[in-house]
Write a structure and sequence with these properties.
2 domains, nickel, 119 residues, alpha+beta, hypothetical protein PF0899 fold, metal-binding
Length: 119
């Protein structure tokens, strides 16, 4: 399951960001995962819970925005969802589409930090 290595990289990047900003903890990490990225969101959530143990992300939430696979037909300019497995055939003009426009994303879009509580 490669989701564990992806989760470990997310935890590492978020922990580095927390350290650079002097934050005590990370509250949440937001990621975009495309339908065609080859990543199973539920497996990523589980892996994140494992990877965050013993780090400043111990209680952090992983917020996943799932991005549908989309294509654009070069012949008629129709934009359409390709589904999974992807069907790269234009529903409007019945020709093959060559341009994927969405669904391959795998990126951190935000990291919410918690400040250390003052006594």
């Amino acid at each position: 399951m490669h989701e564990l290595s992806i989760a470990a990289a997310i935890v590492e990047r978020a922990a580095e960001t927390a350290g650079r900003h002097g934050a005590a903890r990370v509250a949440a990490v937001r990621v975009r995962v495309g339908e065609l990225a080859g990543v199973v969101p539920d497996a990523l959530r589980f892996s994140f819970e494992v990877a965050r143990e013993g780090t400043v992300l111990e209680t952090a939430r992983l917020l996943i925005e799932e991005v549908p696979g989309r294509a654009r037909c070069a012949h008629c300019a129709e934009h359409f969802a390709v589904g999974m497995p992807p069907l790269l055939w234009c529903p409007r003009c019945d020709r093959p589409a060559e341009d994927l426009t969405g669904g391959r994303e795998l990126e951190i879009t935000g990291i919410e930090l918690e400040e250390e509580a003052s006594v």
